Structures are given as structure tokens and as C-alpha cells.
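Tutorial, part two.
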Amino acid sequence: MTETLHAPPEPGDIVSPCCGRTLNQLPRYDRITLKPDQVTCNRLTVADVMILSGQPVVLDANDQQMVVMMAATVTHLTGGMVDHDTALDRVHVAIRQILPTDQPVPVWTSELMIRVVNWAVDLSQV
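Running the prediction step on this input gives:
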């Protein structure tokens, strides 16, 4: 019998990120590992599902705050000509056009945020 290794639930969560099952739903002889490279569950993670869908994946814990901040920057850079909701929409479009879809982006770097904001501003002026 081969042992299957699962990732532990994230803090505050009750399901394993590798398969979406609670610990008591795992087969009896499966184990939990703290080393991500040892996970052998073979179920897709949320990030894997997103990548397969063709959507960019940002693993940064502050992803949503960064997106909102970029939208606020777009509104500021356009002198208020673009309202926040429109700026947020343009930032999402820029993200889909700039970020890779074949691998997750681990964190928002300054360079990446500047590229997204600049592209969102350009999209707002069309």
C-alpha cells in the first residue's frame, strides 16, 4: 500500500488545499506533510484550477488590497476622470493582459504593479 501525502489546511481553514477535503475525510492511511514538494495527493489545487482556466493567479496574501490600491492610483493619475469602479475594471483587464497564465505570480513586485497601473491608465484613455 502506498502512502499519499497531503498539504495541511491553511491557518483558519479546515480543508487541505491539495484536495479540498477535511482531515477526517482523508483515507485512513494518508498522511499530512509540511513540505509542499512532498505532496502526492494528485488532486488539483485552487491555483492549478485557475491556471488551467487561463486566468492569472497571484499568490500574494495582500492581492486584493494591492488591486484596490492600483485602482486608486489609476483614478489619481487620470485626475479623477476615471471613477474608482471603472479604474478597478481597467486594472483587472490589465492584469489579465500582463500577468502570465501558465504559472502563479508569487508576490506583487513594484515593477509589476507599475506595468499594470500604466496599462490600466492607457486603457482608460481609449
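The mean pLDDT is 89. In part three we will examine how such features are distributed along the chain.
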